Amino acid sequence: MDKAWRSVTPLTIHSCFKKSGFPTPYLVDVHDTLMEWNAEPSLWDALPVQVFRCLFIRPDLCSQRKMTTILRNLDTLVSSRLGVSMSSIEVSSYLCFCSVTRPVFKGVYAADCIPDLRKYDRAAIVVNTDVSTGPGVHWLAFFYENGKLEFFDSFGRSPHDLSPHIIEYLKKYPNVDILSTPLQTPCSSVCGPYCIFYILKRSLGYSKMNIQNHLLTIGNNLDRDHYVDEYLRNNVMIYIAPGNNG
Q: InterPro entries from the entry (predicted)?
């Protein structure tokens, strides 16, 4: 999905989990797409550029301490600093292992591989505006509930300003709610944290307007970027469900 994701090699992942005293996870190799989360272990052989890798780890088998150690040791994860983009694996790790978002999170996808969420009562995914063969551009959050699909872009852009794949996908849903208010600083790279924050808050029962209005009370765009980044560091990264205190 992006350069950081492509840099994650089987050897690096294996080393990370070995240092953490935890069995190596399933490594799924999916050619030209990123859709499968539970598959047979990879053969760990040389792979072409258009192959994406994702981890499948059963959270119920992991102690909180071990999972925290694993993520700290996985040195290929991209830092959440405002100038550095989140990788696919980091976005997935936050949402897979947070007890609040885990029940609704259905994966990370490229713009040309977005699954139909209408088979779920409640579901959330993170979508990159780039196609599966591209390097990755920008993260979006989709949240589906009660027959309505919410489209969240921290830049507040219309879907028509993005990928044609996304436009065609949204046409499947008769009820689409689009957040059109810019929240993120144009020069920052915290779209990943914003998506995680949005899905986390929606999973806790906050409405789209509650989330938007709360963020708009936080100074300017740069202040909001720092707030969202710090919020995730202090809550989701250590797998503690945040309280309802904003």
A: Papain-like_cys_pep_sf
